[in-house]
TrEMBL record:
PANTHER family cross-referenced by the UniProt entry: ANKYRIN REPEAT DOMAIN-CONTAINING PROTEIN 39 HOMOLOG-RELATED, HETEROKARYON INCOMPATIBILITY DOMAIN-CONTAINING PROTEIN
Domain of life the protein comes from: Eukaryota
Descriptive protein name: Heterokaryon incompatibility protein-domain-containing protein
Ranges of residues in domain Heterokaryon incompatibility: 42-124
Organism (species): Lineolata rhizophorae
Length: 124
């Protein structure tokens, strides 16, 4: 998977988490870009990262994306059987391989959590 660059330093990505299909365990989503000042309603997720060496695959924008087993578990648990959900979760919404992006996104995290309609704390 290849991230599309954020246009501005105050832009963020949100995940559209698609509904579960017929009880499938596959996680499918897409990433959308928004200026933080005018994001639509979304939910944020707070969690402990877990072991970064244990990865699983989700489908992002139709392409395979390796993420931690913990993130896969969270997204499976949050997927609705009927409708999409708009979410922010740092492991996917921030390009973890881009140090410059992380340097601009991490300071925005308090605003990201404050603007969310709710924050789910995932305990496992």
């Amino acid at each position: 998977y290849e991230y599309r660059q954020l246009a501005n330093d105050d832009d963020i990505r949100l995940i559209v988490l698609f509904p579960k299909l017929d009880g499938s365990q596959e996680v499918r989503c897409m990433l959308l870009h928004f200026p933080l000042a005018s994001v639509p309603l979304y939910e944020a997720i707070s969690y402990a990262w877990g072991d970064p060496s244990k990865t699983q695959t989700i489908i992002v924008d139709g392409r395979p994306y390796a993420t931690t087993t913990k993130v896969l578990e969270i997204l499976r648990g949050m997927a609705s059987p009927e409708s999409s959900r708009l979410l922010w979760i740092d492991a996917v919404c921030i390009n973890q391989d881009d140090l410059d992006e992380k340097a601009t996104q991490i300071p925005l995290m308090s605003k990201i959590y404050c603007r969310a309609t709710s924050t789910a704390v995932w305990l496992g």
